[in-house]
Design brief:
There is one protein chain. With 745 residues, the chain is α+β, with helices and mostly antiparallel strands. The protein has 27 helices and 22 strands. Strand 8 and strand 9 form a beta hairpin. Helix 17 packs antiparallel against helix 18 and helix 17 packs across helix 23.
Length: 745
């Protein structure tokens, strides 16, 4: 799915909520009515029989008590330490042996927030345009706008270095579960167990890292917890930091359809970018392990395999946890995101030049993506059939525990205990919608962020804190990004609206913050009156004691702390208990089901099997593939018809292409692969490990995949490699890349 860079926001949210908030995938509005079939598509031909793992239409349910959990409700994100060789052989008739899985693993990459893959023997890398969007902007030189105009390096010498970029290749996996279990044996108190686990992980990672030569040799060791701690693996990565931009289409092509088309299908986006990994100044030799480009692509019924790094799922959360998310935490998160989008878009509309300088476009894109995702997630949580399936799964799991005396004694009461914790969290529900991403540089007003550091400095100074600690606080204060006063006002008003909506207009906290005024009036007065609204004045005033509690921003912060403090104090112990129970439930599930049920996603490498398949859609069937015909139809029907606002505008290069593109070429396709945030940029390969697609999205029906995997209408949406090649050859005249892809480098 189109994840973009939602994980930074997810981390801040988890921090503000004591770790109890969910991760972030994506959504859109309800799908539009289907278009007329395109001239050359397979939509009018009868669909082939679906394989056993695909349900073509949702079941007709007489009553919720008849709903049953499915075999793959927990998904098909298989780990490489437990590869599903027998399952793939039985289901698809392929010989997926250890050599096959090794090639699949070494051809894949993990990049910041996304996935990628090697597609030639000379270190050429393919990922999504939206995964590289910030870096495309970063390599633009004075007078250039490569995000809008696209980029093509006609030679290797013209490939542009990307600063502070890491590409990780998984070279080894070690199961360290036994060692971890020994380190935690007899430690039951939540905080002590958490500290012991952290200490053991650091010790194991350091030891293994030393074996490989450590960071100086270009290796990273990451401890990966599976089944909520039921299993632990050490992943050894070869990290590459010399990565260069090779080719990127225009934003209007890579993000064709914009937000209206996001999480919909049919789609017509060429969401791809090429990078190259270098080592010691030369292109990395990947001749032994890369995915060769398929010239034939896919057709309906083909088995395809997605290899990537799904970010996070919560498929083993209890029903009580999902209901809490539905009614409180995810609901508050969506309101938070809505308020920040409104604030940032309002400022961008007021001052586009300043907005561009601050790269607000990419921040807004990311937030809108999250907004769409959580809209879809919440819709699924309100679906009684989905929750009924989860209840049936939970019932079967509880029965399996109760049937074994030893398991019953150790794990039998955990589900009930988790439900009781959700009731306790509900007592402080207001905090979940009020304090998300507090002091985040992207989503908080600078004046309030500086007030927090000024408060910390004053307290530390009074308590006699060491000079280096105070210097650290001042460094944090000085690093708060400058914001124009208008943006500070908008973001501060958004924070105050969060609190007013979550706690209620008549609550003591709201009253202490607003004093009967509107959030906008309070925000305007704070920004106008506080010395902390200006960076240089703040840096000068704070160390000298020139910012006391009489400052307008400090007064507001004081009132806020009266709400944040009790919320964190109440939530802290609950979160520690939740973590312990979740880990125990993970161990219990592993005891009952073993590796037959994949663990939740952890932004670690997985392989997901699926089938290219149409699905029922608004009374008809969504086609398996879309083509260039549809791309141009979408453009002309919206632009020349006067109904579009630029989302479907094609650049001049595409309106008068230098070559002669075949408009019947497939551009996007759908499959039943298991996909979630982090899978953006994942390669889709066939049984011969040839590249056939590039994952970039989920349809809106698939957004409930965050907590349940269904294949009746949920689909992964991928860019077809045939469309990429046609665009490179006939529109961008990128013969150098075309030759490299066809020859393998």
């Amino acid at each position: 799915m189109r994840t973009r860079h939602t994980y930074a926001l997810a981390g801040l949210i988890a921090l503000a909520c004591g770790g109890g908030a969910a991760p972030m995938p994506q959504m859109t509005t309800d799908p539009p009515a289907p278009e007329r079939p395109e001239p050359v598509m397979e939509a009018d031909t009868p669909a082939p029989p679906a394989p056993p793992s695909v349900t073509v239409a949702p079941p007709q349910v007489a009553g919720l008590d008849t709903v049953r959990a499915g075999r793959f409700d927990n998904g098909r994100m298989w780990t490489f330490e437990n590869p599903p060789s027998a399952y793939l052989g039985e289901t698809y008739g392929i010989d997926a042996d250890s050599v096959w899985f090794r090639r699949a693993r070494l051809g894949a990459l993990r990049i910041p927030g996304c996935s990628a893959s090697f597609v030639s023997g000379d270190g050429l890398v393919l990922t999504n345009h939206h995964c590289a969007r910030e870096h495309i902007s970063a390599v633009s030189r004075e007078g250039e706008s490569l995000l809008d105009d696209g980029f093509y390096a006609a030679s290797m010498e013209e490939e542009r270095a990307i600063e502070e970029f890491e590409a990780d290749r998984l070279v080894a996996i070690r199961d360290v579960t036994a060692e971890m279990d020994t380190a935690l044996e007899g430690i039951n108190e939540p905080q002590a167990r958490s500290q012991a686990r952290e200490s053991a992980e650091e010790e194991i990672a350091a030891r293994i890292s030393e074996e490989y030569g450590g960071e100086d040799a270009g290796f990273e060791v990451e401890m990966v917890s599976l089944y909520n701690g039921g299993r632990t693996s050490a992943y050894v990565f070869r990290r590459y930091t010399d990565v260069r931009m090779v080719m990127a289409p225009e934003l209007s092509v890579g993000y064709f359809g914009g937000d209206p088309d996001n999480f919909t299908y049919p789609r017509y986006a060429l969401d791809f970018t090429f990078l190259r990994v270098y080592e010691d100044g030369d292109p990395l030799d990947t001749s032994e392990d890369f995915f060769r480009w398929s010239e034939t692509g896919v057709e309906s019924g083909d088995a395809v395999f997605m290899i990537g790094n799904p970010g996070s799922t919560s498929r083993i959360q209890t029903v009580a946890e999902l209901e809490f998310r539905r009614d409180i935490s995810d609901k508050g998160l969506l309101a938070f995101v809505n308020n920040r989008i409104d604030a940032l878009e309002a400022f961008y509309g007021m001052d586009p030049e300043a907005g561009e300088a601050m790269d607000l476009r990419n921040t807004i894109f990311s937030l809108i993506n999250t907004q769409e995702a959580y809209g879809g997630i919440l819709r699924g949580l309100h679906d009684p059939v989905i929750l009924a399936k989860r209840r049936d799964q939970e019932r079967a799991f509880q029965e399996a525990l109760d049937a074994d005396p030893e398991l019953a004694e150790e794990y039998g009461g955990l589900i009930a205990q988790m439900a009781e914790l959700q009731d306790r969290k509900a007592l402080v529900a207001g905090g979940f919608g009020s304090f998300l991403a507090f002091a985040s540089p992207d989503y908080e007003s600078a004046v309030l962020s500086r007030a927090l550091f000024a408060f910390q400095y004053a307290n530390g100074s009074r308590a006699g804190a060491p000079a280096e600690a105070l210097e650290g606080v001042m460094t944090s204060l000085s690093e708060v990004p400058d914001q124009p006063p208008a943006l500070q006002e908008l973001l501060l008003a958004a924070r105050l609206r969060d609190i007013e909506a979550s706690y209620g207009a008549d609550s003591p906290l709201t009253a202490s913050l607003l004093g009967g005024r509107s959030p906008e009036d309070v925000a305007a007065s704070v920004v106008a009156e506080s010395v902390l609204a200006d960076s240089s004045r703040a840096v000068d005033a704070v160390p000298g004691g020139g910012v006391g509690m009489g400052d307008a921003a400090m007064q507001l912060l004081g009132a806020l702390i009266s709400g944040i403090g009790p919320f964190q104090q109440a939530l802290g112990p609950i979160s520690a208990e939740e973590e312990q129970i979740a880990a125990a439930l993970g161990r219990a599930r592993f005891e009952v089901y073993g590796t037959d049920v994949p663990p939740d996603a952890t932004f670690s490498l997985r392989i997901s099997d699926g089938v290219v398949s149409e699905y029922e859609y608004n009374g008809t069937f969504a086609p398996v593939v879309t083509t260039f015909y549809g791309l141009y139809d979408r453009h002309y029907s919206h632009v020349s018809g006067g109904t579009g606002d630029g989302e479907w505008d094609l650049p001049e290069r595409w309106l008068d292409p230098p070559g002669d593109p075949d408009l019947s070429t497939p551009i996007n396709f759908v499959s039943t692969n298991d996909i979630i945030g982090g899978n953006s940029g994942s390669p889709l390969v066939n049984a011969d490990l040839e590249l056939v697609g590039l994952a970039f999205d989920s349809n809106t029906e698939g957004l409930s995949g965050e907590y349940i995997f269904l294949t009746d209408r949920a689909r992964a949406v991928s860019v077809d490699v045939r469309g990429i090649l046609e665009a490179l050859e006939e529109v961008y005249l990128a013969e150098r890349i075309v030759e490299e892809l066809r020859s393998g480098g």
